[in-house]
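ping. complex inputs:
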Amino acid sequence: MSTVGLIRRAITMCIATSSLLLGLVALSPPSGAASSSSTTATWAELAQTPPNYIFPFMSLAFFSVSNINQFQYLMFRPLYWFGQGTTPNLNPSLSLADEPQYSNNDTTVTVNLKNYKWSNGEAVTATDVMFWMNMLHAEKANWAAYAPGGSNIPDNVKNITIDSPTQLTFQLTGSFNTYWYTYNQLSQITPLPLAWDTTSATGASGSGGCAEGAYGTVDTQCAAVYTFLSNQAGYNPSNPKGANNSLSTYATNPLWQVVDGPWRLTHFDATGNVTMVPNPSYSGPTKPTLKSFQELPYTSDTSEYNAIVGGKVNVGYLPTQDVTGSTSNPLKAGPNNPRLTNFALTPLYSWSINYFPYNFNSTGDGGNAGKIFNQLYFRQAFQYLVDQPLYIEKLNHGYGVGTYGPVPVVPQNAFASSYEKANPYPYNPDRAKSLLTSHGWKLVPNGTSTCEKPGSSTTECGAGIPSGAKLAFQLQYATGTTVVTNTMNAEKSSWAQAGINVSLSSASFNTVIGNATPCPTGCSWQLENWGAGWIFAPDYYPTGEEIFQTGAGSNSGNYSNTTNDANIKATNVSDQSLTTYQNYLAQQLPVVFQPNYPSALVEIQHGLGGVTPLNVYWQLNPENWRWSN
Amino acid sequence: MTDPEGVHEDPVFGFDTTKTPVPIGFEAISPDEMVPAGGESTSTGGLGLQIARVFVQNKLAVAGLIVIVGMVLFCFVGPFLYHTNQTDQQAVLNSSVVANTGPAKGQPLGTDGTGFDILGRLMYGGQTSLIVGFASAAVATIVGVIYGALSGFFGSWPDAALMRFVDILLSIPVLFLLIALVTIFHASELLLIIVIAFVSWLVPARLIRGETLSLRVREYVQAVQVMGGSRRRIIGRHIIPNAVGTIVVFATFQVADSILLLAALGFLGFGVPAPGTDWGTMLSNGADAAGNGWWWQIYPAGIAIVLVVVAFNFVGDALRDALEVRLQRR
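pong. complex structure:
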């Protein structure tokens, strides 16, 4: 045999041996004893969802939990903090201001600031709140939480006056539901430091002219400041799809070092490695005891799990595929993985619903996707083929609750209606098929159904859908989380029963949310699933104006329905309950409702206290974390 | 070795046996009295028979061939005998099958994390691995052979230019290139064949180019040139057929390499998208699952990869020996 042959054979044997060793290593005894240090704590980011934006005023492309709740809020505190214990309620002790006072038939709101300081020594004042409000007035189109229609902030603010350095008064355009106004309007405000009011890196604090102008009178100046700050954060408003080349400067740019939260950034890279140290000037109730806090990125939940087992993570999460025992109660932890005996398992249910949007303006599928999505019968058929209870039981070991409407059902609350909870569209393939055939579609199970009766009558395919149009769609979903992938595969095969041919592709979370942006005049994406639906923040009262109202900044799929808009408005301006609104949308299916799996099956290393109770908005408070030894 | 221009070959003298050989410098003697300088001549049969004889003498190669044939039958005929659902996730979830179940009656290799039967999945994934392995090896070999033959035959600056292009591509790490291509274009079976072939044709191109440089100065090639034979005829009828040994051996090894490349991609999460699978993807999923005690999810795919790759290597080694004229019995 030749030398090359011998070498090749040796390599082959090495591969064979390696494979067997791999198996043996995989079968090795449990470990999971994470290394601990009394001075640091490490936290695992959700796979493929690293933070990628630092400026708190952002458009939908960056409007994510990983950017806001798990990154920015550690440094830049919002005016009002939500989540108290395991409830979604306002948390006065962590808020920068006292609870707002409403007067004059709820047309006036008074906000009194507490005694917080920026890390540069300046106080957090009413001017900093005005800075945000002026920027919102000037750049509301670039604020992801903005909802048009005149009844949302900033359109519902007639004027704001600074009464003193610690007090502002908002004059509203009318009388509003005060609960909604606090939870969904004032909740959007994050005071900005005067040091950011500039249009150049060498400009003096306040030189931008946005913070200290009267409310709504400095749009031009604020637009310039917004452009400058966005560019500093790596986002070019005139080229929204451009690459962010500023990520490596986040930890060194002096702008971002001015913080009022308990933490200050010392390291950040494009892969999502984050290191923070305590802000010694933090004025909040609980000061950090850790010397540093690290966020660690992972490309898959498997690699994250291996990091926990390998002792690199103090607070992480258990991937679904590594759950070794099912739970009998979705809200409580079942048996923990035997390799993680040094960790405690806690399921975290966010104040959220899970869904992915249809793009009602899609030009995909030969120009027909948007027209097909606009047909209620199609959306009903599509939803009838999503077997949420089955996926929760079989794919997620019993962890999860169904999403059947626009209001969260967990944590338990008084808002969710019985109609929504009852699941209006339970799994029913026969009903789905009959809906399609009765509307003029030639059914091709496990193939692609086609329209054979074009037209607008009740027995035809629908307005604008031509003969021969295909039920063939592209669905892009976020990679990294196995249960999302498995759910997508199950749904794809389920939709195929009715000849709805869904082609799956995957991309990173940031790519998917970057694609799933509203396009009023049409665009090509059809279905995008970032895997996490919507956590109701900063719209903590789940009235839906940010995601379902016509033209809303986070209405990814361009859903538009006048009845729904009226229902939403009714919840905003009066004390009307959410029942009418949610029942209508539960029936109308503006999105594809998905199983609401726990945001994470959180694993907390023994000895690290203060991590629980977990915030229902998945916000991190490592300033509360303490090592017991 | 193929003779020039269809002249019949004699196994001993290598020229036309219809004419009486007349050794130069000696008086004519009868053919019966002719004895080659190396000793007494014995009949060794045709070329194919000689190759087969050398091949079967290599017991490992025979075992390898049996494994390959067996694995092909297992993957492509097996599903007709052992019926499982490997594509409809919804139906699997709706059935009574429980995920992560160990080997049991009716499920000899257990189930995976989503309830798919692993024995059936091994067949299903094996189809992908073997199809991609064979097809990408075939494409890489064909492209590499043509490219290398052209480069070597023309020589001069075309050769330099073509080979520098190969050098450039060879300087890019294979796995990096593969991952980049699969990420850009989204993995599918066809795409995997193309991208694996794309990174695999470079080596045969260099091998055949070297072989061509040697063959193009042989007398029979020069004879064809003198007789006005076209370049196409020279390359197609004389150079490539005479390099067939190198080509066959390379192609055999390339199948194994392609299967390993696909396994590597699958292991890194860039294999065929679900519900499709391949052995590398199964190995990747199994490696994680095995850590939780579900050992049956890692060994089947791991063993299948090792068996097939080793088998192809054994067969390749034996083919090299069989096609090497100097190692053949005379």
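Chain B touches chain A at residues 87-91, 93-94, 99, 113-115, 186, 253, 256, 260, 269, 273-275, 283, 285-293, 295, 298-299, 302-303, 305-306, 309-310, 313-314, 316-317, 320-321 (CB under 8 Å).
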